Amino acid sequence: MSYINESVTSLQDFVTKLNTFLTGTPGWTQDQLDTGAGKWAIHKTGTGMNLYISFRWDTSSPNHLGIYQALGYTGGNDPGNHPNDSGNGAISGTDSVIDNARNAPITNSPLQYWCFEDDHYAHVVVEAEENKYVHFGFGFLDKLGDWTGGEYCYGFKFYNLNSTLAGIRGSNSFLLDGLTKDNDPSGQVDREFYCATVHAEGLPNQGGSGKWAVHMGDQLSTSLGNDRAAVARIQTTCGFRGGLIARGFGRFAANSEKALIPAYPIGCFHWDRTDDAVRFLGWQKDVRGVNIQHFVGGDEVTVGSDTWVLFPSYFKQTGVTATGTTAWQGIAYKKVTT
């Protein structure tokens, strides 16, 4: 249960420092750290959690950090080829290929990072350039019921890095995203391979050998992709930006005069296409969608006994043109230090 904010000088420096932090007091286990080959892998298990995460970057052009989720680790295998891999993340050490699947576009000159860690998650924010923030993370849902799974992993996809339409574009993906989909705008496809993945087994009408769901919005069931074992994936949905909770509670504006900071929780629901049913699975702990109209990245607010740190989902648009836009869309993380 810990927190850190420190400066970094390169993508490699960021990975090295984050690894040092996570394998220290937080107690994650390092499986691999080969900065010469651009590969890193860590895991944490226990209390039903089986969370194996690996990363890859191009050492000659390190702008994107590939992010992979599996259920085990095999020494000598590339990230993406570990046991029961989710299928998201390009198996490549070339930057332009890594960018074609789940990753975090950190660049090779990030400024600083924050890591919000508790026993069952690590949520990371990187200031990739001044006032522009990239989010990625992994963890274990606060589950409802005793179903098998609950481990999740997400990266960051932004179609147009200068667009104020960040909050409504289906081509983008943040956290456990309930809005991500293909062809928004037209031609932006295969979004299922950029999205968060959730380990799930034995859910209603899921195939017997299925182990994974992709977390996204209004995507066709034929466009959810396969895991690395060529097994079809199911869908989880809602959460950040879209779905049952965000549509109802993500509309309210902040009001600094009344100390009003509306925030909504990030829920995960199974979309069962066979029965056309949506079933609640659990929450992403200690993360909220929030309006940052009166805040900038890294601002802290206190709610009761809790401290929350606020960031734009990528950047905050300022001035008259920001009025009524989605450029105040933000993410709040609980700061756990005990």
Account of the 3D structure:
The mean pLDDT is 92. This protein starts with a strand and ends with a strand. With 338 residues, the chain is mainly β. The radius of gyration is 18 Å and the shape is globular. The strands form two sheets. Strands 1, 7, 8, 9, 10, 11, 12, 13, 14, 15, 16, 17, 18 and 19 form a 14-stranded mixed beta sheet that branches. Strands 2-3-4-5-6 form a five-stranded antiparallel beta sheet, covered by helices on one side. It has one domain. Strand 3 and strand 4 form a beta hairpin. It is 6% helix and 38% strand.
In short:
By secondary structure, the chain is mainly beta. Helix content is 6%, strand content 38%.
Q: Low-confidence spans: pLDDT under 50, at least 5 residues?
A: none
- Helix count, per DSSP? 3
> What global shape is seen?
globular
**Rg over alpha carbons:** 18 Å
The residue-averaged pLDDT reads 92
Tally of separate domains: 1
Distance between the termini: 6 Å
Helix content: under 10%
The biggest sheet, with number of strands, parallel, antiparallel or mixed sense and barrel status, is: 14 strands, mixed
Give the class from helix and strand content and strand pairing: mainly beta
Give the strand content: 35-45%
Encode the helix/strand succession as letters.
EHEEEEHEEEEEEEEEHEEEEE
User: How many E strands?
Assistant: 19
Topology:
Elements lengths: L1 E6 L3 H12 L6 E6 L4 E8 L2 E8 L8 E6 L24 H4 L4 E2 L7 E7 L2 E9 L2 E9 L1 E2 L4 E7 L41 E6 L10 E4 L18 E4 L8 H4 L13 E10 L4 E15 L7 E5 L2 E7 L16 E6 L4
Parallel strand pairs: 13-14
Antiparallel strand pairs: 1-7, 2-3, 3-4, 4-5, 5-6, 7-8, 8-9, 9-11, 10-16, 11-12, 12-13, 14-15, 15-16, 16-19, 17-18, 18-19
